[in-house]
Amino acid sequence: MNFGKVAFGTLLLVAGVLLLAIRLGLVPPDTPGFLLRFWPVLLIAFGLAFLAGALKNPFLGCLASILIVGGVAVGVFWMIQRHEGAKVSRGVASIDLGRAKVGSLTVRVRTFAGGFDLIGAPAKSRTLYVAVRNSAGDSASGYRFFASGKTGALEWPQRLDGLGLAPPGGGVDVQVPLHLELGDSGRPDQIHIGGALSTAHIRIAQDVPVQLLVRSPLTARTLPSDFVKETQGRGKGLVYAARGRGRVVKIFADGNLLHVKIERIPGKEILNGRR
Predict the structure, then answer these.
(1) Could you say which of 4, 64, 105, 134 has the lowest number of CB atoms within 10 Å?
(2) Which residues form the LiaI-LiaF-like transmembrane region domain (predicted)?
(3) Is the pLDDT of residue 216 over 80?
């Protein structure tokens, strides 16, 4: 028997069950990030599996699978207890857009088995708030904000050496001021959503024009009735647009197994959303 393949199959099975439990709300979404901190356990498990095949020892092969299943089970139990005890870290930071002197904003977010929420700040606010949901607290959960002229950009996770790897199960909440000192009511120019197995929930006022570009056929969409599908060239994805007044907010969905949900809200509030 090839115990290495058995261990790999066990790992895929456990990973699938864990991600499904996260989507169903049975397990905290930041559990994968916590489990990945103990990745050397996988080396031990696969080492035992390969030894079992070389020595033809079924006991070592079973021990490898038990180590994978048991390790994940203990980690899940630990994370559930931490959440119930409210011992989950949540990094919160604020950016003074008035001091940065920006009049337009681009938001780029990439998640894996996590979520992205775009919410509205009070009308007189000039502060951009970023809250990261990731109990592992690794450096990869940090954000990056930079300004070029009057244009600002918020990026999460921050890119290191050209890579921007999202912590599994992590999420980010971005609170955008409704009115910047410059620009069209402070609404962001572009919102880039990437990653996999994630949810993005955005609520936009009824009078704001929006253009959604979906580049992957595996991206689910929940859109208001005023969104109309537009013709797009081959290989460029699908485009959905809604008319309104002022500057268009462009939303780019680039990933697999994403769910992008956009809602219209009444009144003059520009942006407001929740997961």
Answers:
(1) 4
(2) 7-51
(3) yes
Nearest one of 172, 186, 175, 157 to 98, comparing CA atoms? 186
Q: Of the candidates 19, 3, 15, which has an alpha carbon nearest to the alpha carbon of residue 65?
A: 3
Classify burial at 25, counting beta carbons within 10 Å of its beta carbon; exposed 0-12, middle 13-18, buried 19 or more: exposed
Please count the helices (runs of H) and the strands (runs of E) in the chain. Answer: 5, 13
> What length is written for the chain?
275
Measured over the CA atoms of residue 17, residue 23, residue 27 and residue 29, the dihedral's sign is positive
∠ Cα 154 157 163 (to 5°): 110
Q: How do the residues of the chain divide into helix, strand and coil, expressed in percent and rounded to 5?
A: 30, 35, 35
Q: Give the position of tokens 């951009």.
A: 128
Average pLDDT over the chain, rounded to an integer: 77
User: For residue 39, what are its two tokens?
Assistant: 């990745």
Q: Where are the domains of the chain?
A: 3-84, 90-265
Q: Within 13 A of 35's CA, how many CA atoms are on the CB side? A: 26
Q: pLDDT-derived band of residue 214, with 50, 70 and 90 as boundaries?
A: very high
Q: What is the pLDDT at residue 180?
A: 46
Distances (CA, A) of 112 to 14, 151, 153, 156, 172: 17, 27, 21, 12, 11
Helical (H) or strand (E) element with 31: helix 31-35
